[in-house]
Design goal:
Length: about 400
Amino acid sequence: MKGVSFRKESVHDGTRNPDCVFALAEHFAFRLVCSSNRFIFSHLFNLGVDRAMVARSLIPISILFCWTSLAGNPVLAQEEPAPTAEVDGLPPGARIRVDDLKTLTRDRMFRDAKVAIDVVDLSDGQNVFSWKANEELLPASTMKVLTAAAALKELGPSYRFTTELLTDGRISEEGVLEGDLYVRGSGDPTLVLERLWKLVYDLKLEGVKEVEGNVFLDDSAFDRANSIPGWNKREDIRRGPAYFAPMGALSLNFNTVAVVVGPGSKVGGQARVQLETEVPSVVDIDNQLVTGVPGSRRWVHMDREVKGRSMKLTLKGRVPAGSGTLRYYRSVADPTAYFGAALETLMKSHGIRVRGHFLESTVPAQGVRTVAQLRSPPLAAILMEMNKYSSNFMAEQVLKAVG
C-alpha cells in the first residue's frame, strides 16, 4: 500500500465494491475502507477527519466492529480462496475474507504508529482477527469516535440542542413582563455570545422592555458533575487551560473566557488587557503586564485563582510596543454563573431592565410558555466540528446529553 488518504463514502447500497468495509456498532459511526494502494477511514454521516485522525482512530486496545461488506481484492483474487464468513443482516452474499484483514498490517501506519486491533463477530462472540490486542495503549481522543457513534444512535443525526426563554407572566402594552423569566438550557456546545445576543434580541422583539420579576437560570438538564474523572491535575486547576473547560447545561463560549492583550500607549507603562465578554461579577483581572520596547519578545504568563463560583486571572509579562492584540483563553470556574453574568450584560445592552435578581431554579412544570428559543445545528454537523478540531468540551457536552 502507498500511504494514507481520505474520502467521503455513502452507505453501502450493494452497488459499490469496496475491498473491505467495517461499521462500528450497527452501521452508525464510521467505516474502514482499504484497497491495494490506499487506506481510507471515513464517517457514514460525513464526519470528515484528517490524516492524523486515521492513526489515532486505530490506537485503542480493542475496538469492536460489526461487519458490513467485503468484496474480493483484485490482487488477492488471483490467489487461492481464503476462509470467508457470511454476516447476518447484510446484503446477500456479503462475506469477509480473513486474509484481507492481514493485508492491513502491511500499511506503513502499522510500522510508524502503535496500533492494536481486536475484531469480533457479534453473532457468536468469536474472535476473527487480532493485532497486538493485549498491548496496553492510551485511547486518548480516539474515544471521541465512540462518543460520536453513541450520540448518533441514541439521539440521531438530526437532534438539536435548545436554549429557551420562558415566562409565567404576560407582556403589558408598556412592555413590562409581568412575571418571572426562565432560561432553560440543554447543554448546547455551540452556543456563543453572538447567538446569545440574538436570543436576547428576540426577547426584545417580543416587546419586552422590562422584567418585573426575577430571571431564573435552569441548568437541571445536566447533573452537578461538571468535569470528567481524572481531570484534577494541580497544574490544570491553577492555569485553567481551555481544554480543561467544565460542562454545564447552560454553557457559553465553550465555557472559556477570551482575554484580549495588547501594548499600552507608552513603553514601560501598563499593557492593555480586557475581557472579550464582559462578566465582571465572575471574572476579575489583575493586570501586571508591562509594555516593552518595540521588537522585544512578547511573553505572557497567566494564573487562575478560583474563588467559589468566580475566578481571578493574574497576568504577568511583557508586550512589545507596536505589536498587535492577541487572545488568550482560560476555562471558567462555573458555567452557569458565567452564562448568567453574560446574559445580564446583554440584557442591559439591549435596554431590558430587570427589577428582580438573577437566580437559579428549575422551570415550573405548568403555567409557563416559551417566549423565544435558540436551536443548535443538527447533531451530525456538531460531531463533524467535534472530531475535526478534537474538541474535548463538545465531546463531553454531547456525552452528557446522551445520558
